[in-house]
Q: What sequence folds into this?
């Protein structure tokens, strides 16, 4: 049972991340998509892994323009049985997919609200007459473009090849360098070679970012590089936060294991979310 | 011209925050609402202040359950002319508003998706038969409940008194202690007494949270308490972040002014968003 669960429908960036992850594990089985499971919502991806319907699940964690995906952070905090077993970083290149003969024949553009926002200047310059409609995913928009030749979807080239839709224009996003990072969650980490990264959540006793300094000090003095820090509310009191930290190294090897042992004695909450190979 | 702009329609929590702010400035003029300006979107609130149609604007910045309001952080970063001149902290107590004779006569419950999510357990226990519908604001739902007695809105007691809607049940949120913090933005800070807080944005040269430690060190060594730290992407490259920091003290007084002077020479970006009286 090697199913990978992702946020569907088929053709989403999460789907592409699932395919990318499987290719890393098993390069020779590139084309079999029947073992990928599309879930309608993120909690469903987590449930599929928990209930053993999938060996791994794909969760978007941050985008270089939009920032953190808070639901993913909140979900992982609640699920003690799961761990992060890998990461996938995807470039987000938006394309205009349509069966229209050319751009002038496009009357409507559909996509996910974030994709529409990321292509706003392009749409205003090239398709000022088009009716813009927000739908729940880029893949849903692609599915609709299959039915109506006057409609274009903003979606990935991955969606174009999956839905066999012509690409009228590519790289139409206003900001270059747009990337999304996904966590792969599961019950057991695959044996991939390093370098490694560790993700953890920590709450300081006084629950003030002032004490964050003493936590970061331990990492700095051990020479461990932090690659990301993200605060989330404890959901108990305004002004109380948890910190999601990504750092270099394995949680079971020095110097990180020593830093973590020291932190454990001084913090209210310390949870290792996983140690995994860099994406 | 003393207009205060807020995210409407009338009856939202932002509206209540605007009323709360005016009451702090001018306690005797409590009931005059004609100088409050409802804007349909957050960028409109910022524009109203920039274009001198309002002297102040109300922007939600964080909620104790949902976390940061990213759009507010991103908007403030772009608007160099505005500063934070105050803060308002509101308890968020959701109520069930309806003209129905009792709860059993309610067929539909409408509200903002976050309010619905925050009352999910209550709705499942008390109104399992009701059709749930998400709309763009709690106030829009209250307006609809005025028209249809089989419909209940989840909104504030403030909205109840504004729309003259009966309160069928109050404090129905699943988590207690739910609060939202708002920033008041304007061109000039009013003369309120302290204690004071300062909000700033900083980007470290290496653009790695590892260097965040050296920034926090300056604050810690000067004995300045940080009350909040929030990261946002630079929108240029995955893994590059800006940090929104709230700390105690005034930016023009020691020890904070000395820390800021030191930081200025070592950081790529340092912007003071404002010094204001605690809410």
A:
């Amino acid at each position: 049972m090697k199913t990978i669960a992702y946020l569907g429908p088929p053709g989403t960036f999460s789907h592409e991340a699932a395919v990318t992850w499987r290719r890393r594990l098993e390069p020779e089985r590139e084309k079999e998509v029947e073992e990928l499971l599309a879930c309608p919502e993120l909690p469903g991806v987590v449930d599929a892994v928990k209930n053993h319907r999938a060996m791994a699940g794909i969760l978007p964690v941050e985008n270089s323009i939009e920032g953190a995906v808070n639901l993913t952070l909140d979900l992982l905090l609640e699920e003690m049985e799961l761990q992060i077993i890998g990461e996938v970083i995807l470039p987000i290149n938006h394309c205009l997919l349509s069966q229209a003969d050319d751009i002038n024949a496009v009357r409507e553009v559909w996509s996910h609200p974030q994709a529409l926002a990321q292509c706003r200047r392009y749409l205003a310059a090239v398709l000022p007459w088009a009716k813009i409609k927000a739908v729940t995913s880029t893949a849903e928009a692609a599915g609709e473009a299959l039915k109506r030749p006057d409609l274009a979807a903003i979606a990935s080239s991955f969606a174009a090849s999956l839905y066999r839709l012509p690409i009228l224009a590519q790289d139409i996003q206003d900001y270059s360098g747009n990337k999304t990072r996904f966590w792969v969650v599961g019950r057991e980490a695959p044996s991939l070679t390093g370098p490694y990264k560790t993700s953890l959540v920590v709450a300081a006793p006084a629950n003030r970012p002032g004490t964050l300094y003493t936590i970061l000090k331990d990492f700095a003095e051990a020479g461990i590089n932090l690659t990301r820090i993200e605060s989330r509310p404890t959901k108990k009191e305004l002004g109380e936060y948890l910190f999601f930290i990504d750092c270099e190294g394995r949680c079971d090897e020095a110097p990180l294991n020593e830093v973590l042992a020291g932190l454990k004695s001084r913090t209210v909450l310390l949870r290792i979310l996983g140690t995994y190979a860099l994406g």
About this structure: The mean pLDDT of chain A is 91. The longest helix of chain A spans residues 13-25.
